[in-house]
Amino acid sequence: MNENKLSEDERNLIDAVARYDLERVQQYLLDGVNVNCNNGSGEFQPSTPLKMVVFRISDCMLNDDNLEIYEKIAKLLLENGADKQAAIEYAETRYGKMQVNNFNDDNAMDKILKIIYYYNA
């Protein structure tokens, strides 16, 4: 499948992640939408649902409740087979090499990146 040719449901899944809409994300995954759908937007843009999580968690306009939802979305995507390595590489492209021994659990962004990094490790 051409990565630029997403189905409507795949586009909507990425949009639901971008809008931190946990219920819609859950529904699309229950409906069997590809958790690793890729919009082909390139290495510097959030091209998959899990990369969208990594992109959005750095948004200074998000509040603690929004970040808590992103933690749940990240776990849900990972539980459904999201490619964590691609998300880690994307995070390191955006934010620099992860210092895996220095994740700060008091920092919401670090907490979510730690979940992704250590999932099934």
List keywords for this structure.
single chain; 121 residues; mainly alpha; Serine Threonine Protein Phosphatase 5, Tetratricopeptide repeat; 6 helices
Short synopsis of the structure:
This protein has helices spanning 8-18, 22-30, 49-56, 64-79, 84-95, 108-118. The protein is an all-alpha fold and 121 residues long. The longest helix is centred in the middle third of the chain and has 16 residues, at 64-79.
Give the terminus-to-terminus CA distance: 30 Å
Structural class: mainly alpha
User: What's the number of helices?
Assistant: 6
What sort of overall outline do the alpha carbons produce when their principal axes are compared? globular
Q: What share of the residues does DSSP label as strand, in percent?
A: under 5%
Based on the structure, what is the oligomeric state of the protein chains? single chain
Q: How big is the Rg?
A: 13 Å
Low-confidence stretches: none
